[in-house]
Amino acid sequence: MGKVLALVLAVLAFLAVAPGYGAEWDRWSLERVRDARVLVEDLPEDFKEHGVSCQQLKTDVELKLRSAGYTITDDSDSVLYVQVDGVVSDFAVIFHVSVSFLQPVLLLRDIERLRGMILHDDLIDVFSSRVASTWSAGRTGYVGVERNPARSIRDAVSDLVDMYSNDWLAARQDLEAREQQFLELTE
Predict the structure, then answer these.
(1) What does the alpha-carbon distance between residue 173 and residue 6 come to, in Å, rounded to a whole number?
(2) Measured between alpha carbons, how far is 105 from 124 in angstroms, rounded to an integer?
C-alpha cells in the first residue's frame, strides 16, 4: 500500500507543477528565433536502466527540429531545454517531461540603464546577462516497466517538441505576414 500511495503522490506532485502551453505571448516570443542548442538534463539512474539516454533524446530532438527547418548550433544563446524526471517501481515508471525554450531577455527596468550606455561592451553585458524561459510545455505519463518505458518517454518528448515546432513555425508565419502588410502599405 505504501508504494501505491507514493506513486499517487508523485503523480499529483508532477501535475501540480506542470508548465503551461500555447499562450499567444509564448508564441510571439519565438518570432525572430533562428537557431538554438539542445540541452537534455541528466536523467535519473533508474531511467537509464530502462533504456532512456540523454544522447538518444538529444538526437531525437535535434532531428525533429532540423526537419522543421530549425538551425541547431552549439554557439547559440538560445536553448531548447529538455528535462525528464520521475520515479520507477517494480511494476511502473511514472515520468514527467518538460520542454522549455530559454533565450536572452531584456527586462523593462534595463531600458533605463540602456539610455546611458555608449560602449558596445556594456550593451553586450546587459543583453547576455539574462536568460528566461519564454515557452514551455510539459507532460506526465505512466507506463508499466514491461511496456517499453523508453519508447513512452521518447514519444512524450517528441510530442512536446512538435508543439514547440508548430508554435515556432506559426510565429514565423505571423511575422512574415506582418512584414508583407507593412511592405504593401509603404509602396
Answers:
(1) 46
(2) 12
Domain count, the chain: 1
How many residues would you count in the chain?
187
Domain that holds residue 106: 2-186
Q: Is 134 helix (H, G, I), strand (E, B) or coil?
A: strand
Chain-centroid distance, C-alpha 64: 13
Instruction: Please write the tens of the pLDDT for every residue from 32-62.
Output: 788 899 999 999 988 888 899 999 999 999 9
The per-residue pLDDT of the chain, averaged, comes to 80
Q: Which helix (H) or strand (E) holds 6?
A: helix 2-16
Are 92 and 145 a contacting pair, CB within 8 Å? yes
Q: Which three cell numbers stand for residue 85?
A: 524526471
Q: Is 187 helix (H, G, I), strand (E, B) or coil?
A: coil
Whole-angstrom distance, CA of residue 68 vs CA of residue 71? 9
pLDDT at position 137: 95
State the cell numbers at 21: 502551453
**C-alpha cell at position 160:** 512536446
DSSP string, 16-51: HT------HHHHHTTTT--EEEEEEPPPPHHHHHTT
User: For residues 50 and 149, is the Cβ–Cβ distance under 8 A?
Assistant: yes
CA–CA distances in Å: residue 154 to residues 111, 144, 147: 41, 15, 13
The β-bridge relationship of strands 92-104 and 79-88 is antiparallel
Residues 6+ positions from 177 with CB-CB distance below 8 Å: none
